[in-house]
Write a sequence for this structure.
């Protein structure tokens, strides 16, 4: 009897991981990666032997957590992200016995946009940070205090004399995380002499505390669906919104992007590096699902057909990687190197 129970248990594991596996790829994560992943999924779905993958949004942290939660078809196969996996996120993977490979797929600009009926902003990254970071130096420059700027013109007289109101993504978003790091931290608290001094005084030499966004109603969390932010901007010409470049690229008839440090948010400026507010896009694929859930290898191969300069993804607003980077990640899709702590810089 004891032997029989062991055999049945083994068969149960086999059936759950093989025979009863999902017959389609499941992925979730970044709203920025979402439209690009959807394009690739739809192309893969044209293959008569495969089902179209199911792509869900929800935010980069949701994607990275989702792929790391465990093995089994109740868990997603791929996590999409517009911010790189952090050490604590990889530690969650390791805790759950999940191995992943990191695949960079391209780049994207972080855009501050508004209705074409409103005033186009021409602003520095440092001044944009002053508008949205939770704390700024007081008038005497002696301590950080809650952000007191109410109008854009309060920051500099040449900026619009209208209230600061910005719709943006929630804390689960890679776009928000990247904005907070690139704009609030590195472009302001990492460069402004007063902010640097005060950050050091409070034991925050790298200025990471400056990443916190305002919570007084000036910055409005508008969910993970960037199309909803675009809609709000169309309805309110006095408001601005933060999202990925592709959403601006698809709505240029009604919205416009702010000029940051004299660089317009264009495909050419982002790809050349002239427009500084940009970041890499990724997906994380779970090793234990690759040869169980059908189509995962085909899905990775499908990306390679569309991620070039003349591909469908560039047409949709994704900034392509260089040919060398594409070659490197093509190899990674084949060899599937396991992401380890030593690969992550922070």
């Amino acid at each position: 009897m004891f032997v029989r129970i062991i055999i049945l248990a083994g068969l149960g594991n086999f059936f759950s991981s093989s025979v009863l596996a999902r017959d389609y790829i499941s992925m979730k994560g970044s709203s920025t990666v979402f439209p690009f992943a959807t394009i690739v999924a739809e192309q893969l779905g044209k293959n008569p032997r495969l089902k179209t993958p199911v792509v869900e949004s929800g935010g980069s942290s949701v994607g990275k957590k989702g792929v790391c939660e465990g093995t089994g078809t109740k868990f997603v196969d791929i996590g999409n992200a517009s911010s790189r996996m952090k050490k604590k996120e990889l530690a969650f993977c390791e805790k759950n016995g999940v191995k992943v490979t990191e695949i960079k797929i391209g780049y994207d600009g972080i855009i501050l946009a508004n209705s074409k009926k409103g005033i186009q902003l021409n602003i520095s990254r440092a001044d944009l940070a002053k508008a949205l970071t939770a704390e700024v130096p007081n008038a005497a420059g002696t301590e950080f205090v809650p952000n007191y700027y109410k109008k854009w013109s309060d920051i500099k007289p040449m900026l619009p004399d209208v209230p600061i109101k910005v719709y943006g993504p929630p804390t689960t978003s890679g776009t928000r995380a990247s904005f907070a790091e690139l704009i609030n931290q590195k472009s302001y608290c990492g460069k402004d002499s007063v902010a640097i001094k005060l950050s050091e005084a409070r034991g925050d030499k790298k200025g990471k505390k400056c990443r916190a966004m305002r919570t007084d109603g000036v910055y409005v969390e508008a969910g993970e669906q960037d199309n909803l932010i675009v809609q709000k901007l169309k309805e309110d010409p006095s408001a601005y919104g933060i999202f990925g470049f592709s959403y601006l690229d698809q709505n240029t008839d009604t919205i416009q992007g702010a000029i940051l440090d004299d660089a317009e948010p264009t495909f050419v400026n982002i790809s050349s590096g002239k427009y500084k507010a940009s970041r890499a896009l990724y997906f994380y694929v779970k090793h234990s699902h690759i040869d169980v859930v059908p189509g995962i290898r085909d899905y990775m191969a499908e990306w390679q057909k569309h991620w070039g300069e003349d591909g469908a993804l560039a047409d949709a607003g994704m900034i392509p990687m260089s040919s060398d980077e594409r070659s490197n990640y093509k190899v990674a899709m084949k060899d599937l190197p396991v992401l380890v702590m030593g690969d992550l810089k922070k």
Notes: The CA atoms of residues 134 and 214 lie 4 Å apart. The two ends are 52 Å apart (CA to CA).
